[in-house]
Amino acid sequence: MIFVQCTTSAFIRALASSGVPPKTSRIILTDGGIYDNLGLGCLWPDRSPDVSLNVIPVDTIICCSAGFGLRQDAPGQFLFARMCSAFSAVFDRAQNAAMHRLHEAQRTGQIKNFLFPYLGQQDRQLPNPPADLVRREEAHAYPTNFDAMPEEWIERLSRRGEQLTLCLVRAYMPHLINEQSRAEGTRHAH
To answer: pLDDT band at residue 144, thresholds of 50, 70 and 90?
Structure first.
C-alpha cells in the first residue's frame, strides 16, 4: 500500500495520472493537523487495531511537506517574538522526530520505501529536474497564515510540489510510474 500525504489538488491530479497501477496498489491521501503536521500519525506501522481505527499495512510513504527546511529566523527581542520562536522550536522538533521515525521504519523493515519532497528543497540537488521547474526562489516566500491564497500562488506551490514529487519518484521509485509517464519525464528533461 502506498501512503501519500499532500494537500494540493494539482498533486492529486498528477498522482492519478502518474501510472500507479490501480489494481495492484492502493493510495491513501491524508493531511496533517496542528501537532502532526506531516499527517503521518494515522498510518504508522506499529499502530494497534485494538486502540486505533483503520489500521492497514503500508509499504511506501510519500510525505509531501510545504516546509522549507531549517528555519533561518532572526532571534526575537520581545515577548511575543520569543513565544513564537519557542513554539516553532517545539513544532520543528516534532517534525524532526517524525522524519527520524520514517528512517527507522525503513531501516527496520516496517516500510519498504519513503520519499520526503518539500518545497524548500535545493534545486541543484534534484535528480534530473524538469526544464520548466518552478524554482525554490519563486515559491519559498509565501507566508504561513490563514489568509485566502491567490490563484497564482496556489498554482505555483502546487506545481512545485508536483514537480518535486514526480522528479524524486522517477529517480528513486521508478517502479511506481508506468512507461508512458517515464517517457513524458524524459521529454521534460530535454
So the answer is: low
Distance between CA atoms of 103 and 149, rounded to whole angstroms? 33
d(CA 46, CA 74): 39
pLDDT tens profile 71-89: 566 666 788 888 887 877 8
121 vs 17, 59, 87, CA distance in Å?
24, 24, 23
Total residues belonging to the chain? 190
**End-to-end alpha carbon distance in the chain:** 33
39-71 in b/e form (b: 16+ CB < 10 A) is bbebbbeebeeeeeeebeebebbbbbbbbbeee
Cell numbers standing for residue 58: 503500508
* CA dist., res. 35 & res. 95, Å (int): 9
Q: Under the phi-then-psi rule, with left for phi > 0, alpha for psi from -120 to 50, and beta for the rest, what region is 109?
A: left
The pTM score is 0.70
